[in-house]
Design a protein that fits this description.
Layout lengths: L3 H8 L5 E5 L6 H14 L4 E5 H4 L11 H20 L3 E5 L5 H10 L5 E7 L2 H7 L4 H6 L21 E4 L5 H14 L5
Parallel strand pairs: 1-3, 1-4, 2-3, 4-5
Helix pairs in contact: 2-8, 4-5
Length: 188
C-alpha cells in the first residue's frame, strides 16, 4: 500500500496546508497566489483552493447562510486533507469566518500539517480596497450575510502566522510566510 510518506518522498518535500483566513479584501488571495508562485519556483508541488475553483464546482449549490458557510469549509477541509495525503501542499484562501470550522479542519490533519495564516486587516481598510464593490453592496443591503458587516468574523486565537496586511507590503508579507516555512523546516 502506498502511504502519504511514500508520496512525500516521491515529491521530495513534506505536504501540509497553508490556510489563509481573513476578511474579504484583506489580501488572502493575493498572498496565497504569491506564496504558491514562490513554492512552485522551489520545485514544490502545490495546489491553490479558492472561491474561483471551489464555489463554482464542488460547492456550487451552497449559498452564504451560516450552515452553508460551515459546509463550504468542511468540504474544503476534506479536499485539503486529500491533497496532503497525496503529498501536495494545499494552499487555501477563504474567509472561513468561524473559529470552530477552522478548528474542525485542523483536527482532520496531523499536528504539523495545518498552518493557519491570519491576514489581519481592519474592516475600514478592506472597504477602501474593496475591488469588487462587495462592501458597498453589503452596506446598502444588496448582499446579506456579508462577513464583517452583517455576519461576524472570528479572528483566530492562536494562528501559526499573523500577517498584518494593513501596514505591511505584499512582498514583506510573502517573505514572512516563506521564512516561517524555512525556519520550521517545511521547506529547505
Amino acid at each position: 500500500m502506498v502511504k502519504k510518506e511514500d508520496r512525500q518522498k516521491l515529491h521530495g518535500h513534506k505536504s501540509f496546508v497553508l490556510w489563509f483566513t481573513g476578511l474579504s479584501g484583506s489580501g488572502k488571495s493575493t498572498l496565497a497566489n504569491k506564496v504558491e508562485e514562490i513554492l512552485h519556483g522551489f520545485g514544490i508541488s502545490t495546489y491553490l483552493l479558492d472561491g474561483d475553483n471551489i464555489r463554482f464546482g464542488l460547492n456550487r449549490g451552497l449559498g452564504f447562510s451560516e450552515d452553508d458557510r460551515k459546509e463550504n469549509i468542511r468540504r474544503i477541509g476534506e479536499v485539503s486533507k486529500l491533497f496532503v495525503d497525496s503529498g501536495i501542499v494545499a494552499i487555501t484562501s477563504f474567509i472561513s469566518p468561524f473559529k470552530e470550522d477552522r478548528k474542525s479542519v485542523r483536527k482532520l490533519l496531523m499536528n504539523d500539517e495545518f498552518i493557519e495564516i491570519y491576514t489581519k486587516c481592519s474592516v475600514e481598510a478592506c472597504e477602501v480596497r474593496d475591488p469588487k464593490g462587495l462592501y458597498k453592496k453589503a452596506r446598502s443591503g444588496e448582499i446579506s450575510h456579508f462577513t464583517g458587516i452583517s455576519s461576524p468574523y472570528e479572528p483566530p486565537s492562536n494562528p501559526e502566522i499573523v500577517i498584518d496586511t494593513e501596514i505591511t507590503s505584499i512582498e514583506d508579507c510573502t517573505n514572512e510566510i516563506i521564512n516561517y516555512l524555512r525556519i520550521n523546516k517545511y521547506i529547505s
